[in-house]
Amino acid sequence: MAYVARKIPFVGTVDTNPETKPFFEGAAAGKLMIRRCTSCKKAHWYPRALCPFCFGDCDWEQASGKAKIYTFSVMERANPPYAIGYVTLAEGPSVLTNFVDCDFKALKIGQDVKVAFIQTEGEGPSLPFFTPA
User: Is 108 helix (H, G, I), strand (E, B) or coil?
Assistant: First the structure.
C-alpha cells in the first residue's frame, strides 16, 4: 500500500508549554531535539524538565535523526490509510511516530529510518515523522 499524504492536525499552540518550546523551535529549523540528563547522561523522550531516570537536570541536544523501527501498525481502513509505530533513536530513546513517504507493505521491524519534518495543517508547526533511510 503506497503512502498517500494526509492532513495532519495540531491541537494547541507551541507557546502552551515553555518546557517544550526548544523542541518546536528545533523542529521549525529541521532539527530533532531531545533531552539528555546532565547527571546520569541518559537521553530521554518526551521532553521534560527532570530526568525520568534520576530526576537530574537536563539539557537539550540535537539528535542524529537516525532510528530503527521497533514496532508498527498500518491502519488500512482509515481514509487515507496511515502507519504508526515506535522507532528507537540512535541516541537510545523510543519515540511514537507516523511513517511517511513510503510503501506501508515494505515496512519491517528493525528497518533503518530517518526523520522527516512535515508541516501540520493550517498554521500548525512542523513535526518530526519518520521515513525509510
Answer: coil
Residue 22 preceded by cis peptide, ω within 30:
no
Cα–Cα distance, 37 to 55 (Å, whole number): 8
Is the CATH code 2.40.50.840 the one for domain 21-132? yes
Beta-carbon contacts of 12 under 8 Å, excluding residues fewer than 6 positions away, are: none
What is the model's pLDDT at position 2? 58
Q: What is the pLDDT of residues 34-53, one digit of tens each?
A: 999 999 999 999 888 899 99
Element (H, E) at 115: strand 112-119
Is residue 21 within 8 A of residue 28, CB to CB? The reply is no
pTM above 0.85, yes or no: yes
